[in-house]
Amino acid sequence: MNLTVDPEIRDIIPNLRPEEHEGLMKSLVREGCRDKLVTWQGVIIDGHNRYDICILLGIPFETLEMKFNSRHEAIAWVLDNQLNRRNLTDEQRTYLLGKRLQQERKPVGAPVGHEGKNQHTKANGVKVTPLAPMRTKEKIAEEQRVSPKTIQNASTYASAVDHIANIVPDVKERILSGNLLATKKDIVKLAELTPNKIGEIVDKAFEGKKVNLSIREEERRERYAKLITPEPMAFPKDKKYQVIYADPPWKRHYSGTLNREIENHYPTMDLQDICNMTIPSDTDCVLFMWCPSSSLADALTVISSWGFIFKTCAVWVKESKGTGYYYRQQHELILLATKGNIGTPAPADRPVSVIMAPREEHSKKPQIVREQIEKMYPILNRLEVFARDRHKGWDVYGNDRKLQEVSQGADAYSSDSGNHEIPSAA
């Protein structure tokens, strides 16, 4: 007896693991095909693996014909039947739950023989009525003893798996068997990328690389490309400043894991590139430079390269602790260096060396520091390097498109960018 294998229905059935397939074959050879193959209109809806083995080895089998009003009902039965299997992986179960919801959301067809006709179509003079209303995700969730959100997430996951499988056909089985180094969230994120990127990341996954690492690398490359200005500007040569305020984008020497890399937030610069910058400092000038404690040695190197001499420092104490491999960091340093004969602030204008201020967005420094500098040196012209945005009374420089050249201080400025901009090296 030759039966029909419907590709859509067969694709729903999770493949057996090699050891399961081998066990089934031995059982069929030893005991014959004891369970009937389930069919609908001659199409197999349960027993595909038994059918393949029986045809291959010439083992007799019987069938049980089911009756459904439509193909929609038949596929819904297949999904429910597969969900009752006890040997499903978590990925297979989630996929089937998602397909179950998607099946319920499809338009319900007319009874067999009248598919394609709507509720106003008459067959043999009899009006065709629509089938029973589709079950909602709440109903499916109740049947499967999970939350409606779980059902909705499963539908998103199933769509992602199908989309990826359309691009890389041989990957579906590995995803659903749990043999790909990817979580369900990774699969959803992967499906959002371009087909070429999906193919590249799947190839790396086949070689044993975790999918989430590849996705993060791709996301970081995209962010990095958006942050870097193609043609960074050089400093003007016709103006010098007596006050320089800088927050260089230090490159960390060690980040441990990819998600801790500072480049996930903004592009960084090599130490030598920062040292090579020609800063428009006047003969007499004071420099205020931010640095994390791990970059202290680099900061002192930059200070010397820019022609300054280190004098002292203050510390910004944050309200919550951060990361760290020896100490969990809860502070950041602002170094003060001078060149020439800049002089010191008036005693009444000298702030304390401990700054208590909360964290804001990543790498953003407290506004109070800028105000302290203004009070310490109220009449000198000031330049902020690696600026995030513009401020009254300051010239600013960054490589955001709106800060590509030194912007002159004006009466009012508002924030232009959340990026950590990078000036060019001379």
Short description:
The protein is α/β, with parallel strands linked by helices. It has 14 helices and 12 strands.
Task: Give the SSE map.
Layout: H1 7-12, H2 18-31, E1 37-40, E2 43-46, H3 48-57, E3 63-65, H4 71-83, H5 90-105, E4 122-123, E5 126-127, H6 137-144, H7 148-167, H8 172-176, H9 184-191, H10 195-206, H11 211-227, E6 241-246, H12 271-275, E7 281-291, H13 296-305, E8 309-317, E9 331-339, E10 354-356, H14 367-376, E11 382-385, E12 395-397
Helix pairs in contact: 2-3, 4-5, 5-7, 6-7, 7-9, 10-11
Poorly predicted runs of 5 or more residues? 110-134, 229-233, 400-407, 409-426
**What is the total domain count?**
2
Mean pLDDT: 81
Question: Gap between N and C termini, in Å?
Answer: 81 Å
Specify the helix fraction band. Answer: 25-40%
User: Mind summarizing the main beta sheet?
Assistant: 7 strands, mixed
How many beta-strand segments? 12
Count of discrete alpha- or pi-helical segments spanning 4 or more residues: 14
Spatially, the strands of the biggest sheet line up as 10-8-9-7-6-11-12
Helix/sheet category? alpha/beta
Q: What is the C-alpha radius of gyration, as a whole number of Å?
A: 33 Å
Overall body shape: rod-shaped
Pattern of helices and strands: HHEEHEHHEEHHHHHHEHEHEEEHEE
Give the strand content: 5-15%
